[in-house]
Specification:
By secondary structure, the chain is α+β, with helices and mostly antiparallel strands. It has one domain: Alpha-Beta Plaits (2-Layer Sandwich), CATH 3.30.70. It is 44% helix and 18% strand. It contains 3 helices and 4 strands. It has a 4-stranded antiparallel β-sheet. A hairpin with a 4-residue loop joins strand 1 and strand 2. The relative contact order is 0.15.
Length: 153
């Protein structure tokens, strides 16, 4: 018998948490709707950034390394940061983040608003951060990758 067939009380914690998170996500969507859900998840992401603070760094490459170190600690994938100076946008490509089945739009993106809050919190911890900038998903996101921009809104 594999882990998914074991009685609930004998399963590994990861399996139990996945069931709980799926039920929680569906309930949040039912009660709050997508707008309020995304606002709540952004707040959770900002709170997580305070629980996993990054040191102040002086380069984009160093910031990417610090972010990836923190993400690796919690098993939440990895990030690439790309600066487009002409567009005045920082492009954030987050790969292999946790999914809750196919929930979210596009499918598999339910937690992506949480990433927006997490990155907003981490950028706010850096010297010279501008409060007028924020992180938002871009349309090119897909199930295993969330593409975001950090720019003036």
């Amino acid at each position: 018998m594999d882990e998914s067939e074991a009685p609930l009380g004998t399963q590994q914690p990861v399996v139990q948490w996945r069931l709980f998170l799926r039920a929680l996500a569906e309930e949040v969507d039912t009660l709050a709707g997508t707008g309020d859900r995304d606002d709540m998840l952004r707040g959770v992401g900002r709170r997580m950034s305070r629980m996993m603070p990054l040191p102040a760094v002086n380069s984009l490459a160093s910031l990417q390394m610090e972010m990836n170190d923190a993400l690796q600690m919690v098993g939440w994938g990895e990030v690439e940061l790309h600066l487009s100076e002409p567009d005045r946008v920082l492009r954030i490509v987050h790969n292999n983040f946790p999914r809750i089945g196919s929930l979210g739009t596009p499918a598999g993106q339910w937690l992506s608003a949480l990433l927006e809050g997490l990155y907003d919190g981490w950028f706010a911890q850096q010297p010279g951060n501008k409060p007028s900038l924020s992180t938002r998903r871009m349309d090119e996101s897909e199930a295993a990758t969330v593409v975001m921009s950090y720019a003036r809104r």
